Amino acid sequence: AAEAEPVPPPAPARVVIVGDSIIEGAEGPLRAAFGDAGWEVAFDAETSRPTSTGAGILRELVAQPTTAAVV
Length: 71
Hints:
By secondary structure, the protein is an alpha/beta fold. 37% of the residues lie in helices and 21% in strands. It contains three helices and three strands, in the order βααβαβ. A three-stranded parallel β-sheet has the order 2-1-3, with helices on both faces. The longest helix is centred in the C-terminal third of the chain and has 11 residues, at 51-61. The chain starts with 13 loop residues before the first strand and ends with a strand.
């Protein structure tokens, strides 16, 4: 029988979380929940952040391979 080709391991799941003070206040629980499930977390939140600023940051962060985004 032919030997199977090795399958590369899957890339780790990555979540991008961008927001304002509400997301900022939830950083600990969000990092814990995703981290405990094996996700890499990219987090960027700031009090009184305008939506337009957050959209720009989101575009930058999802330029890297990303599985999911929370805004």
